[in-house]
Design brief:
Layout (H helix, E strand, L loop, with lengths): L1 H27 L16 E5 L2 E5 L3 H13 L5 E3 L5 E5 L6 H26 L1
Antiparallel strand pairs: 1-2, 2-4, 3-4
Helix pairs in contact: 1-3, 2-3
Length: about 120
């Protein structure tokens, strides 16, 4: 009985980790400079596994703006890395699917907003 509960929980965590990876993989492509990665230059990249993953955006300023924008929309998310260049997702293993998706929607919108600001500034 106890083993069944553990195996079921482990299966749920693996499924959520895979879903998180898929969503963050799409979000990473929105980060300014992500397209440079395919040309042998540094660009945004996804790191981590399971429910502990992060997007290395290459600059602490960009990561900070993404986190601040997400916070304004109701998501608490932080940076990590030597220069705070990683937007870190560290979700509880018990996070409900709907809550996980709502948080990822906020993060995606924040990345889009920062990417848009960055693009406008560059012009």
């Amino acid at each position: 009985m106890q083993i069944d509960i553990f195996e079921r929980r482990e299966s749920q965590v693996c499924r959520k980790g895979a879903h998180l990876h898929d969503r963050l993989s799409r979000i990473v492509e929105l980060v300014p400079g992500a397209e440079l990665r395919g040309r042998g230059m540094p660009g945004a990249e996804l790191r981590g596994r399971g429910m502990m993953q992060g997007i290395n955006v290459g600059a602490g300023e960009v990561a900070g703006r993404i986190c601040a924008t997400a916070f304004q929309r109701g998501l608490i998310i932080e940076t990590s890395g030597a220069d705070d260049e990683v937007v870190k997702f560290l979700g509880p293993l018990t996070t409900q699917d709907e809550v996980l998706d709502a948080g990822l929607d906020i993060l995606e919108a924040a990345v889009r907003d920062v990417a848009s600001e960055t693009h406008q500034t560059a012009e």
